[in-house]
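step 4 of 6: structure.
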Amino acid sequence: MDFTKRINDRHEYAKAWKARTGGKVLGYFEETFPEEIAYAAGILPVRILAEAKPDCLSDKWIYGACFPAKAMINQFLQGEYDYLDGLVNVEGCQWIFNAYEVITNNKPELFKHYLFSPDYTDSKTSKDVFRSELAIFRGLMEQLSGNKVTDEKLDEAIEIYNKNRFLLRRLCELRRADRPKIHGSEFMDLVLLDQVTDKAEMNEFLERFIEEVEDREPGPDRIRLMLIGSETWNSELERMCEKLGADVVIDELDNGTSYFWNTIYPQRDRLMAIALRYLNRPHNPVKDNNWRRRPEQIFELSEDYHVDGAIIAKQIYCHLHGTDNYMVWKLLRERNIPYHYFERDMFVPEEETELRLEAFLNMVRGGITRLAGWHKKAKI
Amino acid sequence: MNHEYGRWPESVWTSQELDWKQAERIIAGVDVGTTSTQAVILRDGKLFGYASIRTGADFAGAGEKALKLAMGEIGMRREDIAAIGGTGFGKRNIGFADRLFDEVSCCMKGARYMFGPEVRTVVDMGGQTVKAIRLFDWDRVRDFMFNDKCATGEGRSLEALCELLHVDITEIGPKSLEAEKDPEPVSTTCWTFANTETLGLFGRPEFKSEKLSEAEIYASHLFAYSWRILGVIGRLSSLEVGEIRIDGGLGLTGGLAKNPGITKRIERDLGVEAMKSDIDPMLCGAIGAALLAC
């Protein structure tokens, strides 16, 4: 299945969905966006995926920002997202907020909303604050769509989204195997596709796809890696690892596993149930103030998925991950998990990155008895 | 009139004392880097010949040429070499290599050969990359870091500066050490800005609180280099709060290791003296490739 093509065709998909259903399409940036509420209003939420394209427009508006923020502005100014009816930003990364501001200033016709979400996710008041923000947001979604967001509609949406998370977790479990039947690149593409597709359709597809994957032969025995760091919008890095004899078996990226990891626990107050799900997401650098529990969470994932090493890929100018780096490095070093750190932008420079990955994988191989003799067979 | 100030001297040497025909085993290593290419011949583990030349765009040709020069004009043929290891940015172009190795492993192995078992941290300062490597056991890499964007601290940028200033690349380091005290460094991020800033110090000294001497301007520039390189070492060093500390002996390799203006400042700021070797530090990768190939 060519997921890359389907991701590239996402604009056509959204336009066709709109023509077919007559519904509205809403863009969002952050994984903390409560999609269920928009979906319950009959709106299709689509994540804005940054794409590297020739860009002479964004510098004028936002010089020196991270490349994904600039790429998103460029895509909007080039008209790629003209089919969107609205754009929502949830409190999070400052660069993305700036991109949101630039885009909405340039596209005044878009419905826009800035949704506050507490950075101190488990303070005494955070859940009540976020719930009240969600109540406002529900009203806005009703206005935008013209549809009432009833408890029944919310229940339906929650069920569809929870099922989607369950299916992705099930696929993720298959990566825990010694010889996974699904590789890191394919999985990352799938998760990205999930973020731009109607979840009901995606669930049907995922059910069929999981059956297909389960029937596959186990993959080759490879070095097992974890991918840590800033968000990515493609699977280039995972593909490069596979080419060099390794496999990314787990990640902790905000638009990777963190997108679907936890579910909504139903309760009578639907908005509170949704609020708690988003506040209790896996920790990321921006929503982990004070406690800094992300490094420990990374370690637990690395243990669960039996990783041999970790790659930390940070988007250049991503100050959030830049600040977290030190704590992540320290913990990985203390727990004897080999890692390699590098900075990237929208592109993964092939020669330079391959050179580093090769060296890193050889370093990791040296410490793995499971793969003893592997390096002798491999042609570097 | 056509003096190229940034052009470091190429070198070729083949032993006149040892007879290669009496050797039990001859091995070779070729390191095709972005800026320079080295080839070494080891005769029963001893350095027998080497060549260090500029790479250019023809990676395959540079590797061939360097190996040919290292073999000297003593009748040695490629078939006489038991194993050839290849490494470097252009390693995939070394068609005649028996095996290819990554640069970090080669640096580790080459540094062990050059500095012995005491070396625990190697800093390879090349044309377009700076790598800091922590070693353990005899031939294992514990950890390594590369420089990331942008490019101050790389050999290629120093070549460009020397061309701009018309100062010989072999002289800028010693001259910089004549300064009594290092002034503030120029830009530690972008090498174009660093070079422009250095030119500016020559051109408009009145904008500085006091006029800097020539030596101080060079010191300011090379201080930026060592600052940036220390940043890479710092990421590799102990992650405890406080100063940058490194484990065990420090080995400096690569073209910039020949520049005392950089190495002395690194030593000063780390508070350690780098280990000494009689072997040209640019040969480290090629030696490592040869040793790994055998």
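step 5 of 6: annotate
 - The domain at 11-114+282-293 of chain B is CATH 3.30.420.40 (Nucleotidyltransferase; domain 5).
 - Chain B has a mean pLDDT of 92.
step 6 of 6: archive
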